[in-house]
Amino acid sequence: MSDTATRLRNVLLGNTPLTNLVGRRVFQARAPQGQAEPYVWINRRGVEDDGCLDSAVGRDAQEEYFDAECWAPDLGKSQDIAAALRTVLHNYYGTFDDTGVAAVMVTDHDDSYTPTGGDGDNEAMFYAAMGVQVSYK
Fold first, then answer.
1. Model confidence over 64-122: pLDDT tens digits?
2. pLDDT tens digits for range 19-32
3. Residue 38 neighbours by CB distance under 10 Å
4. Whole-prediction pTM
5. Which strand (E) or helix (H) includes residue 16?
6. Which of 15, 73, 123, 130 sits at a 20 to 30 Å CA gap from 114?
7. End-to-end CA distance of the chain
8. CB under 8 Å to 89, separation ≥6 — which residues?
9. Pick from 36, 40, 48: nearest CA to 17
10. Distance between CA atoms of 81 and 126, rounded to whole angstroms?
11. Across-strand partners of 94?
């Protein structure tokens, strides 16, 4: 599941309402310095495996957790991007490319979060931060 972020990015880029707002500017792990806005940044923050003592060695994770930040030059636009991201991902199920996904949940939305996906030049930008949980079949 190491490339879940890539698969998650592909799902976001395949959604026309979201790409109408950000184009192809959906980045994993790091947004390029001086990146034009608006954009979406995603990064894995954790992995959970509810395995038991008799679970198979090397078994894939059961859940992964991501931060998603929706960056824009004004508050309304960042909220619009967040709403589009929630519409795409919340209660999503099926597949990410060839990987079965039981559920994707947008677990929170925070406008007072300290952003990590910017490049340090974004003091005039607004952002909406969201937590995303991916559960596998």
1. 999 999 999 888 999 999 999 999 999 999 888 778 888 999 999 988 766 666 655 55
2. 999 999 999 988 88
3. 21
4. 0.83
5. helix 16-22
6. 15
7. 12
8. 8, 11, 12, 104, 105, 106, 132
9. 40
10. 11
11. 101
